[in-house]
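[job 4417] fold queue: 2 targets
>>> target A
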Amino acid sequence: MNNKGVKLRDIYEASNQKDAFYLMLNMANNNAALTIDNILKSQ
C-alpha cells in the first residue's frame, strides 16, 4: 500500500475496514493536519 499523500477519499474508498484503519494511521504518522477544516478541504 502506498502511504505517501494519503487522502481522506482513499480512506472512504478503502475496500475494507483494515485498509481504512491503516490509511488513517498513516495520515497521523505523516503529521497530516487532521483539523476539521483540512478534512473538509480534502474531500
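>>> target B
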Amino acid sequence: MSRFKAFSVIIHIAGWLLFMAFPLLFINNRGQDDITWSLLQKHSYWLFCYTYIFLFYSNAYFFIPEFFLKKRYVLYSIIVVLLFGGVYYLQPFDKLLRSIGNRGKGTYGINRPPFGSFPPGYSGPGAPLPDGRMGPHADSPQDGPRQFPPFNGQDRGRHHFLHLRPMDSISLFIFIMVMALSTAIRIIQQWRLTERRAIQAEADKTTAELSFLKAQINPHFLFNTLNNIYTLAVIKDDHAADSIMKLSNIMRYVTDDVVADLVPLQSEIDCISDYIELQRLRIGNNTRVNFIVTGNVESKKIAPLVLMTFIENVFKYGVSKHEKTTIDIKISVSDTDISFFCRNHIFVRREENQRGGIGIRNTQLRLNHLYPDKHLLNIWNEDKEYSVQLIINQI
C-alpha cells in the first residue's frame, strides 16, 4: 500500500471514530449519567452509525461515479430524494435518544403527548378553566357539537392521515452534511485523477517525442554517407573501411546506447566526432570545421542526442558547394555545467529553413522536460549567421 493510500485510510478511520463519538458526547452532555457502554450495546446506536457510513460510501463510490459524473443528473436527483426520504422515515438520531430512556421525547428532549390526549388538568374542549371561564371551542348552537379524536387514541386509524411524522432535524442535517462531504471528496478525487491522467498523457507524448528525436538521424545523411562510402570502396580508398566503422558506431549509439535517460558525455562526443568526420566526406574543401572540446568529460553525463539536432542543422544549412565557409563547434565542461556552442553561415532557402525549425522546437521541448530550470538556450539568427548557445547545469 502506498504512503498516500495508507494516509487516506487513516484519515477515514479517524473521521468515522470521531463521528461515532458524537452521539456519546452529545447524550452525556445533556445531563445523563455515563451510559457509554450501555449505548454501545443498543441496536439504535449502530443503526445511526451504519446509516451514515452507508450513505457516505455509496454516494462517493457508486452514485457519484455511476450517475452524477456520467451526467445522469435526473436519476441521481431521484436517488438523493429517496435517500432523504429513507432518513426522514428511519429518524436514526431521534430513535437513538428514545432507546436510552427518553421515550416520548423528541430530538431536543421535549415531551410529546400521545395522539388524541390532552395535557394534565385539561378536560378537553368546552370544559371550564380554573378561573371559571369556558374553554375554547365550547359547544354553541350555531356551530353544533364539535368532534375530537378519542382521548385514548381509539379509532385512531380514521384520523391517521392527519398525523404527520415528527421531524428529526439533526438526522436530516447530518444527512445533508454527509452527502455534501462525500460528493465534494469524490469530485475532488475525480479532478485529481483527471489531472494525473492529463499529466501522464503529456509525459507519454513527451516520451514519444524523445524516442522520435533519438531515432531522428537525417535519412539524407545516411544516403549521402552510404554513397560516399560506396565511392570510396569503388576507388579502393583507404578511408572506406574507417568510414563504415564510423557509420556503424553512430547507428549503434542511436539504436542501442540511448535507451537510458543519461549517457556518458564522452559517448555523446564520440558520436558527434564520428558524425563530423563522415560529413567531411560530403562537404569537400570549401567548408572548414572547427570542433573543440575542453574540460574533463570523464565523470559527466548528458541526455543522449540532445546536441544532435544542432549539429545536424549546422551541416544542413551551413554548407555550400560554391562558397567557402567556416563552421565552429565547441563543447566546454566545468565542475558545474556543460556548455555547447555552434556557429555557421546560412545558405539554405527560407522555406527549407522553416521546415528545419521543427527539430529545434522539439529539442526545446525535450530540454524543458529533461532539464527543467537547469538549462539556458540562446539562439541567434542575424545577418545570415546562425548561432546556438546551450548551457546545462550539472549541480
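[job 4417] complete. Note on B: Residues 1-111+165-214 form one domain.
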